[in-house]
Amino acid sequence: MKLPKEVGIQEIAMLIGGKAQGDDIKVSAICLSPLKAQEGEVAFLFDPKLIARINECGASILILPSGTKCDRPCVFVDRPLLAIQKMLQFFQPKRYFPDPGVHPTAIVDPTCELGKDVAIGPYVVIGPKAKIGAGTRVMAHCVIGGEVEIGENCLFYPSCLIADYVKIGNRVILQQGAVLGSDGFAYVTAKPSNMERRMSGNFDLVDESNPHLKIPQIGTVVIEDDVEIGSCTTIDRATMGATTIGRGSKIDNQVMIAHNVKIGQEVLVVAQVAVAGSCTVGDRAILAGQASVKDHIDLGKDSIVSGTSGVMRDVPAGDVVTGTPAIPHREFMTQVVLLRKLPKMYDEHRAMKKRIEELEAQLKRSAEPVR
After folding, report:
1. pLDDT grade, residue 357 (50/70/90)?
2. Res. 21: pLDDT tops 90
3. Is residue 231 part of a domain?
4. What domain count does the chain have?
5. 230: domain CATH number?
6. Above 80 in pLDDT, residue 56?
7. What is the largest CA-CA distance in the chain?
8. pLDDT digits (tens, 9 = 90+) for 240-296
9. DSSP secondary structure string, 234-270?
10. What CA–CA distance (Å, rounded) separates 70 from 93?
11. Contact 237, 166 (CB under 8 A)
């Protein structure tokens, strides 16, 4: 990746909070693959497997974890990922956002309140009595419903939908196509359904129409400060009350958060996670990719749900769970190890069974009277 200007090793060290070693040479690019690096580039080597092959890296400057032995020009850092964050934040290219003001093609209800330096892009639609705080930028084709409250310095990328009555805090980022405040999925039947019959132990099923009646979703969604929500993620409004996303939480792309879910502060929710209704997710919990959580589950603070796991019961604070149904991670890995041994154990069992049968036959023959 080409840098906008040449930088020296001392400047890099100051920028990322590291300690420089060697001559103050300059580089003009960041190498994306350390083993393919060339002269004039800076390379990040943090993986122990890559560090073991450091002699194959042709970069002019190396960025390494503190304590690594190296006699080449390099910068040592204590937190490698933080070093990358600082470097990319400094050199990120210009992004193109709408200028302050309302684009001529936007449709803004006259009762809407816009703060200072709000930017409304092309073809945006804003409903009655909406309030948008100072410095917020709304890009093309976003739709904002009636009586929505949006804080300051938010950024909504194109084609986001914020439905009526949703409340959003300050510095919230919505990536392309995020949807906040769609109706929760809630229905009831006038008569007991066949599913209810099965659940109660009655398998005398009835073959007749029993329409699903929509339960009105009269609640809202509350997004607290410094939250980021990924592309095509949907967060349903509550049946009553509020679906809440806590301060500083980050939600990836294609995530489904159902009605009345309460997500705590600084939670990480990775792509394609599904959280069913009325769940509670504690502060700093992590839900890895494609994990699913059954309704009315409580995930404790600092808990971790491994990727593709299915959570069927509460997870205590600090626990790590894996599998479907999810169980403690160590227990799951023990089961995996034992399962891999199962074919060998089965063969040993068959051989042992055959040997026992042979021994029993020998004993039976030896016990027979001699004629």
Report:
1. confident
2. no
3. yes
4. 2
5. 2.160.10.10
6. no
7. 115
8. 999 999 999 999 999 999 999 999 999 999 999 999 999 999 999 999 999 999 999
9. EEEPPSSSEEEE-TT-EE-TT-EE-TT-EE-TT-EE-
10. 32
11. yes
Domain boundary, last residue among 39, 61, 91: 91
Q: Is the pLDDT of residue 316 over 90?
A: yes
Which own/partner pairs from 48-52 qualify as long-range (CB within 8 Å, at least 24 positions apart)? none
Query: CA 307 to CA 300: how far, in whole Å?
Result: 17
Query: Within 25-121, where are the H helices?
Result: 48-51, 80-91
Structural domain of 47: 2-91
Is 171 in the same domain as 263?
A: yes
CB 214 within 8 A of CB 187: yes
- What pLDDT does residue 50 have? 81
CA-to-CA distance for 44 and 86, rounded, in angstroms?
Answer: 13
Residue 179 phi, psi (nearest 5): -125, 120
For residue 371, what pLDDT band results from cuts at 50, 70 and 90? low
| Residues 179 and 300 both lie in one domain | yes
Structure tokens at 338: 């034992």
Say if 148 falls within a structural domain: no
Tokens of residue 191, six digits? 């008569």
Out of 274, 304, 334, a domain closes at: 304
Active-site residues, by number, are: 259
For residues 173 and 274, membership in a common domain is answered with yes
